[in-house]
Amino acid sequence: MMHYPLLMKSILYRANTLYPNQEIVSRDYDGLFRYTYRDLHRRVCQLANALAALGVQPGTNVASFAWNNHRHLELYFGVPCAGRVLHTVNIRLFPEQIVYTINHAEDQVLFVDPDLLPAIEQLLPHLTTVKTVVALCARDQLPAHHIPNLVVYEELLAAQSDVYEFPEFDEYTPAIIAYTSATTGNPKGVVYTHRGLYLHCLVGLTSELGIRDTDVTMPIVPMFHVNAWGRPFIATWAGAKQVYPGARPTPQVFCELIEGERVTMSAGVPTIWMGILHEYRTKPGGYDFSSIRALLSGGAALPLALVKAFDEIGVNIYQGYGQTETTPVTFIGYPKASERNLPKAEELRYRVKTGLLLPGLEMRLVDMDGKDVPFDGQTMGELWLRGPWVIESYYKSPEQTAEAFVDGWFRTGDIAVMDPDGYLQITDRTKDLIKSGGEWISSVDLENAIMGHPDVAEAAVIGVPHPKWQERPLACVLLRPEAVGRVSAEDIRQYLEDKVAKWWIPDQIAFVEEIPKTSVGKFSKRTLRELFDQGKISAS
Amino acid sequence: MMHYPLLMKSILYRANTLYPNQEIVSRDYDGLFRYTYRDLHRRVCQLANALAALGVQPGTNVASFAWNNHRHLELYFGVPCAGRVLHTVNIRLFPEQIVYTINHAEDQVLFVDPDLLPAIEQLLPHLTTVKTVVALCARDQLPAHHIPNLVVYEELLAAQSDVYEFPEFDEYTPAIIAYTSATTGNPKGVVYTHRGLYLHCLVGLTSELGIRDTDVTMPIVPMFHVNAWGRPFIATWAGAKQVYPGARPTPQVFCELIEGERVTMSAGVPTIWMGILHEYRTKPGGYDFSSIRALLSGGAALPLALVKAFDEIGVNIYQGYGQTETTPVTFIGYPKASERNLPKAEELRYRVKTGLLLPGLEMRLVDMDGKDVPFDGQTMGELWLRGPWVIESYYKSPEQTAEAFVDGWFRTGDIAVMDPDGYLQITDRTKDLIKSGGEWISSVDLENAIMGHPDVAEAAVIGVPHPKWQERPLACVLLRPEAVGRVSAEDIRQYLEDKVAKWWIPDQIAFVEEIPKTSVGKFSKRTLRELFDQGKISAS
Questions:
Q1: How many CB pairs under 8 A join A and B?
Q2: Cβ of A336 and B239 within 8 Å?
């Protein structure tokens, strides 16, 4: 076989050759902008020429600081296909983290959406490697600013030839860099190679949920979040119509674009879908969502209630799973043929499973001794992954690399069980597991069991040190107001007796007045552990 | 990204892990045999162990001489995944060609279906490298024979452990070898690497025509023809149910399996589909073909009449295009979204186009000066291809390699035009083109124009030497019986005047009593050229 490298330029090539007249719609600052793949290709060529004109050498990193729009799409192709590397800066990071990631990546050029220029202007004195800032707009869209030698993107492109011969290079060449938003410490850099992105996106064309040329796709997940899950690339490869929601989009914007552009597929996090559902229900008569064939939810577990709510308005929503380290998608919660014949209520339950491993990947579930556990639907193990779009190291971070990668496998840090028929279910994070007497107790499963008690409003379970068992579960329980004083720890324990293994039942139950939450509304187990360490939680 | 090789074992891994209970049906010598992907995996492990037991070293070639059945499927996986190479011998070659290919590939073991043992027994004295013959059956299915030390496949497997650790190796490692059936000279060997097959088959999961786990696939194209177009691998990757039609299948066998096993997709050559259509129409009440969602036709141009005939019985048939050198599929005649909204009659016309280039491939149309021609739907060029599943050389054949490969491109030898909107149409073979005054005339287009004349039954056009124009077309015309003597060469030329370019109109037209055909029913232009050279065709 030819030694023909797997490069991102293949994706653009096919769209330009077979689908030159297919449409791309982008919500620009002054309305909807429309052009075609032929136009995209032409402007990507101009951008590639412009990079050379800006003095950006092949292999050099440049950064985007931008929303989901057509100019960001041009950067997605133009920078990697020209052999440079695009660092998609997460605009939601804290300012000091933004500075850290740009300096760590040594970005030389910064492509910034005009409404984000003020934020960058503030940080500019701290950016040690950036030589040029480019505003992603036309001259008349430029806000007032004090950035020296600011380049206007539309003028930059207009000055360049739209003929460009995309170079050929090794498929392991870096294409995109992203940073994980770590809960502690500095963000960790993740480098996506051409090969990795190519294979991830090719798999995005497969199965019933693969994007096709009949589709109209709208990535809601930001393009600064793990390549917008690859959707812009996959849609381009398919020759699909694409819709970009632009700057500071609201649920109303999403709903209007779905209705107006006849969107068939979209991807985003559960909170976005909740907002869209709320907007749909709030508007008298709702919106016309009849064009949708599949919504893809990821980034956090997809609640069954949300699946059911969308099902009631005739919309199918499915779950994807992955990490920044895995490009990101590794599992899709799409019921197999055998499960699609089930009654609706049962079929929906398969949609909230973490799902089926994508073609090309390998998985293990590993216990605390490093041994594989069986795929029996019961035995928990940490999910380890490997495959062509899983990274093998963090960018310039040998210590963090050594923690997360073992024998060629990536340790996800998620605990899961696997059905004999291939469905994975994430049950917990490694750090939230309770390690008791050489066995694991899932804090999430135990919480769900306790919250099944009719008098319990919320319950969060953490592991606390135990002299004999190493750790034992401590359940922090928020009772419903009317039950306070009436329900005892013993009542809870009795309730659990036929619901979980005997040794899972918490010895310690603390009735609390509030369960602390993280900024995204999850139980903050770190705060609970701190409170316990400080003696501020007492259990019975 | 991980340096994780693209190996065929990934395909089997996923089927065994996610679809262990999915069914494989194989028409064995004594009825339908059924087992699952779990069973397939187990037996592939036994086979891999058996190869070592037979003394077959990694990197060594072994051969199959077999029909489409489950044991052949086991060889498809077991041999390459164990790091050996499977030569799928074409059982339809002439005996001396079979001997040539087996000796050329230096096959050490020959896996033979029991009903084909007599053929091999005849050839065995001429096979210089074969050490062991294995009969692909159980002991009680074995016919009488005189092959020394014949091994029985079922006994070979039964003696082996079903635990096997598939090795990891470079993705450019050979997996399968096939030979093209050349019209002149010896067959040319083509080596498929793990990487090439992997990527070809991954693309087979994409688009509306991609195999999915809801599908029931039956490869009719033989497994000794270019990997059965990859269908056994693609179906396994998808977790689809598979049906294998076994030895010496007839149209009736195909129809009964489609109906009985609820086949959704199948692949074969046009003559097979004609046979199936005839069988369908012959049987009172027909067969139940309602399960079919797509038939794939390849190997020769798909006639519009056949598409229409299948459409009338509610069956969709599509065209694939490719060569042995391209693993094989490179184009699919699947209408784009924009063409699928056309009225049925127009949509069907897009199905008989050669189709759309698959993701990952690159194409050129090159004129006789080696220059690219525009994609304008009119200008002809030779189709050149490159991509990850296009070979870069013939096996141990440097001279034939030098002819077919130029600057990293594979010259298909087919002449085509490409629409501005991406549809390719093959118009001729390079060798059948008429090169007239520095321009090309398509013999096929000219034949079709002449055959549009109501008094013409058949017409074949060849190029004949011309002192000024290098070549000019000679049309050999078979008139309908009632028109003989009534229609003149001048009538034909007048008829063509508003149908083809003036300089295409043949100066010489020969009325013949018969147009010689090849064994597969095509006009034999080689015979016509010989007859012309011998002065046996006279034109006016």
A1: 152
A2: yes
- Average pLDDT for residues A398-418, to the nearest whole number? 93
* Helices B70-81 and B231-238, packing angle to 10 deg: 80
In whole angstroms, what is the distance from residue B314 CA to residue B292 CA? 9
Chain B residues touching A10 at Cβ < 8 A = 359-360, 362
State percent of chain A over pLDDT 90: 83
**Residue B417 backbone phi and psi in degrees, to 5:** -120, 155
Residue B137 corresponds to which tokens in the numbers above?
């059956």
Q: Contacts of residue B357 in chain A, CB cutoff 8 Å?
A: 14, 17-18
Q: Which of B336, B357, B420 sits opposite A14 (nearest CB)?
A: B357
Among residues A356, A293, A346, the alpha carbon closest in space to that of A319 is found at: A356
Alpha-helix residue ranges (DSSP H) falling in A150-285: 153-158, 194-203, 231-238, 251-261, 270-282
Q: Are B422 and A18 in contact (CB < 8 Å)?
A: yes
Q: What is the pLDDT of residues B289-309, one digit of tens each?
A: 999 999 999 988 888 889 999
Do B2 and A408 make contact, defined as CB atoms within 8 angstroms? yes
In this structure, are residues A355 and A302 in contact, taking their beta carbons and an 8 Å threshold? no
Banded model confidence at residue A340, pLDDT cuts 50, 70, 90: confident
The per-residue pLDDT for range B330-343, each reduced to its tens digit, is 999 999 988 888 99
Six-digit token string for A43: 């402007």
Using DSSP, state whether B276 is helix, strand or coil.
Answer: helix
Average pLDDT value over all residues in chain B: 94
Question: Which segment, A175-184, A348-357, B179-188, is predicted with the most confidence on average?
Answer: A348-357
Question: Is 80 exceeded by the pLDDT of residue B28?
Answer: yes
**CA pair distance A35, A12, nearest whole angstrom:** 15
Domains and CATH numbers, chain B: 37-194 (3.40.50.12780), 204-360 (3.40.50.12780), 361-430 (2.30.38.10), 433-533 (3.30.300.30)
The number of beta carbons lying within 10 Å of the beta carbon of residue B275 is 18
Beta-carbon separation of A212 and B212 below 8 A: no
pTM of the model: 0.93
- What's the distance, Cα to Cα, between the start and end of chain B in Å? 69
Q: At what angle do helices A231-238 and A70-81 cross, to 10 degrees?
A: 80
Listing DSSP states for A81-139 in one string gives HTT-EEEE--TTS-HHHHHHHHHHHT-SEEEE-GGGHHHHHHHGGG-SS--EEEESS-G
pLDDT at A316 over 70: yes
The dihedrals phi and psi of A413, each to the nearest 5 degrees, come to 80, 5
- Complex confidence, ipTM: 0.92
Instruction: Say if residue A254's pLDDT is above 90.
Output: yes
Region of A279 please: left (phi>0), alpha (psi -120 to 50) or beta: alpha
Given this model, what pLDDT does residue A373 score? 97
In this structure, the number of other CB atoms found within 10 A of the CB of residue B357 comes to: 23
**Model pLDDT, residue A519:** 64
Residues of B catalogued as catalytic: 180, 325, 435, 440
> What is the helix, strand, coil percentage profile of chain B, to 5?
35, 25, 40
Sign of CA dihedral A219, A223, A229, A235: positive
What is the 3-class SS of B292-320, one letter each residue?
CCEEEECCCCCCHHHHHHHHHCCCCEEEE
pLDDT tens per residue, range B343-370: 988 888 898 899 999 999 999 999 988 9
CA distance A491 to B215: 52
For residue B443, give the H/E element and its range: helix B443-451
- Burial (Cβ within 10 Å: 0-12, 13-18, ≥19) of residue B413: middle
Tell me which chain B residues have a C-beta less than 8 angstroms from the C-beta of A328. Answer: none
Report how far residue B175's alpha carbon sits from residue B201's, in angstroms, rounded to the nearest whole number.
13
State the angle between helix axes of A304-312 and A270-282 in degrees (0 to 180), rounded to the nearest 10: 30
